[in-house]
Design goal:
The protein is an alpha/beta fold and 338 residues long. 32% of the residues lie in helices and 22% in strands. The protein has helices at 25-29, 36-43, 57-72, 97-104, 121-134, 158-161, 211-216, 225-246, 264-273, 285-288, 295-305, and strands spanning 8-17, 21-24, 47-50, 81-85, 111-115, 140-147, 167-176, 185-190, 198-199, 222-223, 256-259, 314-321, 325-332. It starts with 7 loop residues before the first strand and ends in a 6-residue tail after the last strand. 50% of the residues are buried.
Length: 338
């Protein structure tokens, strides 16, 4: 009797796109009652990139995806699933941004869909890609995190407008017969009882578009910043400790800890709790701000492009966002080094 060979989901390549326009803290000082000093001290952010008016989430996602496909060495025709994580889709309900991106890449007749898990979206999608690949349903999955967060930010609200930026990141996840190339573990979770910590009230079935929505600014993101901050530190630390303990890996043996880039103080608190050295922790928040679902793939791309991420090296991903959602992943980089 012939035995079916197991296949493993492997992280083949990374790509990212950062829009050209920079919004600096000094620019924000002219827009709201804030200072560069306050923003840097409380968040670690110095600047963020903002998409052009006629540049949409799908444009950024397609550019990141194009790079990821090219770097994977896998022909575009072999991609058999396109997934996009975003809370700032091109269209509120349909078509999905994954469908629009597929068309921009001329990838037709393959399954494509979006998920909404806010900042946790990319890691959530890695778990979806893993399930599709390891069940044998798909072979090469394009995973995208893309956000035009500036489209839901109220630039008169100093508590949120200083935090967010635009951008996209993408990865190709492929089937491999080599166990050592496969994801080691992924954990993703949610708790809807904290839904009001981070919310964009409209448009939706509760608040369809109306004059009231416009007048009350219900189309903008609202955040209970301080409460979210405290819960983020607690949840991220616990989640990462658990995934390391479960897999009997010491935090010192992780060359690349890549947390969601929301606030330097959150990253520092989690890194310290894990006794991580500075060089283990990947930081991009100072130059991109919080790009939600794009933040982790943009950070992976940064270390890959700078030659810091080598084939076979272990990555520890950790994220937290609206929903509330959170997720962590342990996996080797199975692509080519720069
Ligand atoms: O990606 C999803 C997850 N998101 C996050 O993890 C974000 C988590 N939250 C945060 O990063 C932080 O809570 C913020 C950066 C948003 C705020 O920092 P904080 O240390 O939690 O400040 P706070 O909200 O407790 O506000 C402290 C003070 C307040 O003034 P009073 O009431 O003490 O007089 C705010 O009005 O800081 C004031 N404030 C500002 N001052 C200058 C809030 N925003 C600003 C600002 N500039 N931009």
């Amino acid at each position: 009797m012939s035995k079916i060979k197991p296949v493993y989901a492997s992280f083949r390549s990374i790509g990212a796109y950062v829009p050209e326009k920079i919004l600096s803290n000094t620019d924000l000082e002219k827009m709201v009652d804030t200072t560069d000093e306050w923003i840097v001290k409380r968040t670690g952010i110095s600047e963020r990139h903002i998409a052009a008016e006629n540049e949409y989430t799908s444009d950024m996602g397609a550019k990141a995806a194009e790079l990821a496909i090219k770097r994977s060495g896998i022909p575009k025709e072999d991609i058999d699933l396109v997934l996009c994580a975003t809370v700032t889709p091109d269209y509120f309900n349909m078509p999905s941004t994954a469908c629009v991106i597929s068309d921009k890449l001329a990838i037709h007749n393959v399954q494509a869909f979006d998920i909404s898990a806010a900042c946790s979206g990319f890691v959530y999608l890695l778990s979806v890609a893993k399930a599709f690949i390891e069940s044998g349903m798909k072979k090469n999955v394009l995973v995208i995190g893309a956000e035009k967060f500036s489209s839901i930010v109220d630039y008169t609200d100093r508590s949120t407008c200083i935090l967010f930026g635009d951008g996209a990141g993408a990865a190709v996840i492929s089937a491999s017969e080599k166990k050592e190339e496969g994801f080691i573990d992924i954990h993703a979770s949610a708790d809807g009882s904290y839904a009001d910590f981070l919310v964009t009230p409209a448009p939706g079935s509760i608040h369809p578009v109306s004059q009231k929505v416009i007048d009350e600014g219900l189309n903008f993101v609202q955040m209970k910043g301080n409460e979210t901050f405290k819960l983020a530190v607690k949840t991220l630390t616990k989640d990462v400790k658990e995934i390391l303990a479960k897999n009997e890996i010491d935090s010192n043996d992780i060359p690349h800890f890549i947390p969601h880039q929301a606030n330097y103080r959150i990253i520092k608190a989690v890194g310290d709790a894990l006794k991580m050295k500075e060089e283990q922790v990947v930081l991009t928040v100072h130059k991109y701000g919080n790009t939600s679902a794009a933040s982790i793939p943009m950070a992976i791309n940064d270390i890959w492009e700078s030659g810091r991420l080598q084939n076979g090296e272990l990555m520890l991903l950790d994220t937290f966002g609206g929903g509330l959602t959170w997720a962590s992943a342990l996996l080797p980089f199975a692509g080519k080094s720069v």
